[in-house]
Amino acid sequence: MTQDASNWPDAPFTRADLPGLGLTENDLRRALRCRTIRPLVRGVFVAAHLEETLELRARAVAKVVRADQVVTDRTAAWLHGVDTHVYAEHDSMPRVETCALRWHAPTKLTGVDGRTRDLTPQDVMVIDGVRVTTPLRTALDLGCCLRRREAFAAMVLLAALHGLTESDLERSLGRYRRRRGVIQLRSLVGLVDPRIESAREAWVFLAIADAGLPLPEPQVWIEIDGVPTYRLDFAYRRARVVVEYDGEEAHEGREAEDEERRAWLRRHGWTVIVVRIGDFTGEALDRWLDELRSALATAYSNRRW
Length: 305
Prior knowledge:
With 305 residues, the chain is α+β, with helices and mostly antiparallel strands. It has helices spanning 25-34, 54-64, 73-79, 135-145, 148-162, 166-171, 182-189, 199-210, 248-251, 255-267, 282-296, and strands at residues 37-41, 44-47, 69-71, 96-101, 112-117, 124-127, 130-133, 217-224, 227-236, 241-245, 271-275. Helix 3 packs antiparallel against helix 4 (135-145), helix 4 runs antiparallel to helix 5 (148-162) and helix 5 packs across helix 7 (182-189).
């Protein structure tokens, strides 16, 4: 049999799968020599034309690790539709993050970050043959193990994609007693609002909360003549203050539209505060938070002194 790319499945496979594919060990060796297939992780092969993705690598790992190994943390978030890897990690394939159930040894497979963790059957689900922590468990784990801003963003985006509520998160907090990172997790759970639509918007919301300012309402529609016309990232309706994150990834090609919206808001008595990509640390952070603090301060109070 001549082995070309069309003879091999569009999924990871092992030598044990060959009979079911109607193939032999000789076919495998020949295809490896011809480079129509390639090894992905030890003992697992894929067709050469398949793009290497984290999903594909996780499926490959699942083929050869024991049933007590579960994909967790950032890899789990990726499989659930949320990318929590930093920008530089996209230049090379991140390691698949897994954990072994308690009393089992973590895997030492190359390309895998194996650890140990207590999980219950309710914490685990299967996606395309991969045992992975559920969106709820993944959100809580990331709330402990990522840095604060990234942790909050991951929790918010998982909540939005998978219908998690603050109550869902709070009910599970008791299981995290004494876990490293639980203090951070507890401080974040009560802030999670699934209406927040992006990681950087989550950073804006968290910065406002950490500054001790009133929390804004996410995704507010402004109506003109009864028609919803402008949607704002964050707004304080009564104070007529809007806070928007102006990220290149979200606003590219929309500069004119953004300026039109902000000009209309200013003409109609709104204070518009724009946060940009470099405004999350140091003086830049203090600048827009001070601007927001001043905008929210009222000129009139009914107190006598």
